[in-house]
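ugh ok fine here u go
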Amino acid sequence: MAPAAKTEPETLSWTIGGMDCASCAAKIRGAVERLPGVSDVRLSVMSETLTLALDESRTRRDTVEKRVASLGYTTRPAAAPGTGASSGCGHGHGCDARGHEHRHDHSGCGEPAHAHDHEHARGHDHAHGEAAGHGHAPTPPGISWYRTGKARLVLSTGALLAGAWLVRLAAPEGAYWIFVAACLVGVVPVARRAVTAAALGQPFTIEMLMTIAAAGALVIGAAEEAALVVFLFAVGEVLEGVAADRARASIRALGDLVPRTALVEESGRIRQVDAAALKLGEIVLVRPGDRVPADGAVTDGISGVDESPVTGESVPRTRSVGDQVYAGSVNREATLRVRVEKAAQDNTIARIIRLVEEAQEARAPTERFIDRFSRLYMPAIVGLAILVALVPPLAFGGDWPVWIYRALALLLIGCPCALVISVPASIAAALSTGARQGLLLKGGVVIEAAARAGIVAFDKTGTLTQGEPRVTEIVAFGRGEREVVELAAAVETGSSHPLALAILARARADGVPVRPAANAAALAGRGVTGELDGVAIFVGAPRHARERAGFDNEALAAVERLEAAGKTVAAIVADGELAGLIALRDEPREDAAAAIAELESLGVRSVMLTGDNARTGAAIAGALGLEHKAELMPDDKVAAIRALAREAPVMMVGDGINDAPALAAANVGVAMGSGTDVALETADGAVLKSRVRDVAALIRLARAAMGNIRANIAIALGLKAVFLVTSVLGYTGLWLAILADTGATVLVTANALRLLRFDAGKAG
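structure:
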């Protein structure tokens, strides 16, 4: 189609390979925004997409692709909002490339075969980008990070550095040229990107900073320093790419919660279909142990459904005709028939995926610290060096060799060796200290966000609580407590229901003999029955037990009291009479109350967000002394996080897949070590020992690290300021400039090492 035929801007979308950080996104945005006819530029680092409005009568789409490719990124057209591909998804804007990203996991739009082809083709694009030699090639699917182009660049530069240090012991002159080679190997791809960005109107990028610093150091013979700075920069690029790829993989893993196939019932016949192809109104059969394939309503059957992957509810909920069920939930007891009410791309899990992506994008920093600083620092240093080299000889008849020498010394002092290492050294020490103490923080941005946290929002189940119900109280009527436990355990033997396991655990703990009941049977959604020593037993919820036995005022009062305390109550009926009540609750962790108190002492406010019922939430929060919001779906938790963030920076602590959007939406998300892999990958940090008190320890470590970073920056810039003046005045030559730069590096490193002795668990 001829460009001249285009009269209205068209919305286009591309998948961008190698866009691993907000700095990458900023360079791409700056490059394409300058093209005529381009507007409404949007980039998503997490879904690797570029979306924009383009008037092709002014700029062709292949011009956009070439400009992005010139920066070192790969491009592949993706379904744009408003096209047929995406409109069929029913999202409009929301489903563009993200839908395609997740098709293979059955949480996006379209046919699985196309999804496979898309992923396969995208893998080829990645490989091509890598072969081109640029520094942005992402890790292709199924390929280890250390086999990528960026990793090979780091390894080769590092090997040359190590070789040069060894050779220097025997032949110093030969070592110099090896340092030069190491620098050139690492800086050439960086310089290529810097030149391209400068040609596109962005001269002062971090790539330009590194290129000028390395070139200046080589000019004055400081090859070792030049090679080391380039090597550190390359290591940072690799780690950034690995982190981005792992985060994207964790988001795709959410789609695995929804089964790949479903059993559709039509005219009394059952056929297996692709779950992603389910249509609205179809009836699906969900057998015991199966995951629900789509959001919908129960049309037949009654069963306990484990919704913990989606809502965080601590125990399975009884679902019967008319009740809603969510894709990804697990049917525990009896067969259900469910009418599909939402398409695959609109189900709860798909919404969670989009929430994670959008929250990750919103939370990402616009620029790395060093890149922001270089906007002022590098122009000033380069400009000052040029002035020192030219002005005295031209204006005052100064000696050219003298002033060029001073300009080179100035440029060496301006080399950001100490500044580059000042922040990473503190971060590395903090991460090492945290790892030894069971505290994981994913990088400097996370440390900064954790240090500023003023509110900590906790999930309940598995975070503030143990994550599994336990028997807390036994109320007997006419029988002993041991006999009540024995009767209940008899009919629960062999069950995998969480409440049954809790009763059996209590029987073992009390030394009560557990004998399997005869004729044991599960009454779907109601309870279990059986016989022991000729006694007919029923165990179930009080409302169902009242159909089999009378409840006097004492029993009714006991049920009311226990349920008011947020406990789940199981009634035991023996031969038509109420034998007793067993109360169960997911109890708070032993250190939860102490953790809330420690956070308060740090000036941090605590709030509990839970998908559990309001009565249970109030009981747990009241016992621990913190605020709470209950009966929250994943999107409700995100809304609550955003509301809290208007008051102060928020840290979210959770352990389940249902917590993933909230973990991503918060300023910093922290997962419990006992949580799901997805929560750990999505979160910015983790407390690996699953101790609630470690949340306060993590904040203390982050605050100590930020204090150390500020001290290091002051040391690095302070020394540079002093020697910049002395170099211009001629008091310090090249060797003192090198010594000053090296000395600053030593000082900031030594200061950072102090963090290795920091005890984050020590309050005060």
